[in-house]
## 1
Amino acid sequence: MKFFSTLQAFAVIALGTAFLSAAAPVSSSEIQEKSSQGLRLLSLADGADPVWKTEEEKLDLQRQEAHFFDVTETYELEQSLPKKKAAAVTFPSPSHQSAVKSLLTTVSVSNMQTNLASLTAFNNRYYRSSTGRDASQYILDTVKKIAASRSDITVSSFTHSWTQFSIIAKIPGKTSGPVTILGAHMDSINLSNPTSGRAPGADDDGTGTVNLIEAFRVLLAADFKPTTPVEFHWYSGEEAGLLGSQAIATKYKSDGVQVKAFMELDMSGYFTPGTKEVFALQADYIDTGLNTFLKSLITTYSAFGWAMDDPCGYACSDHASWNKMGYPASFPYEAITGDDNPNVHSATDTTSVKGFSWTHSIEFAKLAVAFVYEMAI
Ligand SMILES: *[C@@H]1O[C@H](CO)[C@@H](O)[C@H](O)[C@H]1NC(C)=O
């Protein structure tokens, strides 16, 4: 995540114009041939045909703060799925205030600090580096340990063609569905030197990652047994074009999984000192009914309010992978764009920068707990 650049706006307009007449779909043999040459198939704008880029060109796009889906590995499955848009959804207002408020008193900063210290100690969590792999193993072990007391809960790795894996923890419901999903991405990137450069990724997305671990811990400590199932996802390869979340969201769609709601936490630990603290709600590629639900959750349970963020545009974070599959998705962000963390994708994304705040971040872990409880109990 997550920048909106003027350059990107121009790119979108240019692409929109260039690709108005749809070309034939990319064939299976073309995908096989080009990807075996190391090329990547990127979707750069809504409705535009995807384009082939080298890894170096792809990295240059990232350095220009362009957003895209890397669809090399999901394009064919996606093409085979029905294109039907999801109907608008509505959700009831929060109605379990005493139970939720009591749960929220047990959300702890110290667990998040411990986990974030471990995650930032890896040189980077790049999706194709060995330390990126080690980081996914650390999260898997940590989440498994939390779930150890409950034989009904499964925690598993979701492997990819690259080295770092994604993770899915499932809390079964008393009924089979639909499922409520929380997501965060585990990978980090140093844009000047992805493979071996330092990328602590404290905020992007260490904070979202540990917020979800803490929400999971709090719910299990209270022996949470929902009516409808709940899943926690930690994604690999978000920084490389939303790879992990696309692999999982397209698989869920193709398997016919019903998803009640998806919420992404990607950066929750920073706001520009002196500005008003808010949950900045993503305004595009989201479900407005789900945003209405989020607003009422925030008003009911949070220490500060919400504000609508400026539209981030295409393929900003993992919520976009779920939105693309027609599932209701949402994304509360740490601050209005411009008041958010300027240190991302670099060696200086640490907890010691001025503006990093655990009392800010903990509100997102609490929101995750409230979201799951009110949605699924
Ligand atoms: C990337 O990593 C190198 C080596 O660790 C570091 O010197 C450099 O500052 C990093 N790049 C950025 C953009 O932070």
## 2
Amino acid sequence: MKRRDFVKKGTLGSIAALIGAEVVFGSKMPANYTPLAIQDPDPYKLFNKHKDMVVLNDRPWNIEAQAHLLDDKVTPNSSMFIRNNGLVPEGIDAKTWTLTIDGESVKEKKAYTLDELKSKFKKHTYQLTIECGGNGRAEFDPPAKGNQWTVGAVHCASWSGVRLRDVLEDAGIKNDAVYIGYHAVDQHLSRDPKKEPISRGCPMSKALQDETLLAYEMNGKEIPLIHGYPLRLVAGGWPASVSGKWINRISIRDKVHDGPKMTGSAYRVPCETVAPGEKVKDEDMCIIESMPVKSLITYPKSGAIINDGKTLNIRGHAWAGELEVKKMEYSIDFGSTWTTCEVEPPVNRLAWQHFKASINFPKKGYYEVWAKATDSNGVAQPMLLPGWNPKGYLNNACHRIAVKVK
Ligand SMILES: Nc1nc2c(c(=O)[nH]1)N[C@H]1C(S)=C(S)[C@@H](COP(=O)(O)O)O[C@H]1N2
Ligand SMILES: [Mo]
């Protein structure tokens, strides 16, 4: 190896700072070599996540929760799933950050600094359920490509910020506006600056709802970088892909937004039911809007063992997209009979609702507890996998846990 190939002193210093120790034989390290300690960062430390979170992919980062990690009424950062389509932005400076409102249907293109957003518009706080459209994908057969989410790609944190409506109205909305589309600063995996990893949006009716926020705080603090610092669109009850992270521009469109991941089979399902594995033409695919009714048993953890004669107190959350959960039931006989759980009203629209029940088992043995929510339109969760679709979206089958009575 040639002399000039050896790592320079300056670089060694910054590597040592990152690793937190001197690289003892650093002078022998080849140029452009990335030490393993930096190559393979510990995602739990990097993103302050619980050790039981499951890493599905590290480029881009995709990490999911397990049901028992979602037991809190308001999800803490440590249990929030991470879903990225591109590379996490680096070197964000909140002081110089601006949000631009533009598009065919804006009256006047305008830019706002974060300070302007905070001082000019009223602050609102809501607990909002955000679930990835692909949550539950792992169960589809034939399998769907993409991250194999099981049950943990959902969270309900408390978000604070300004109403998107207030900002859009300040810039001015033309009569022909139909959709908004967000733009963010994360990089495409190819690092091609002309490509956006994702740019989605929603119809004006959703954009103008009270609860649709441009958030700058999560759970009362600055939003963690991985969840969209310094500014995030939050559209509760819709596929989480609408809730753009690291937002610096919102376009008011005179047509359905056509950014990456708005077209083809991305975040779309067949408008009519199809047979598993069937090919579906693009024009027969419909954009996912409100997410379907669903629930999760967050206590106990699946595999729990209790003593004969003891009562088991279960609890969890239920949500229903734009709707409310009106009924929550559980079954211990594989869905033959159902018993009602207690379910609380949501703290605000689009927040998940908490349920609980006390279960007495008839005798020793193996049981499964299944949970089923019904929404305000009377639609209940299916017991088994619902309609197959090419990308494996919208699996809202009943959550099940195993219990042994000894
Ligand atoms: N800028 C940007 N926003 C994004 C994404 C992304 O890759 N880039 N992923 C979307 C998808 S598909 C999901 S499921 C949610 C995940 O949000 P979370 O990582 O905060 O849980 O962010 C959405 N917003
Ligand atoms: Mo997603």
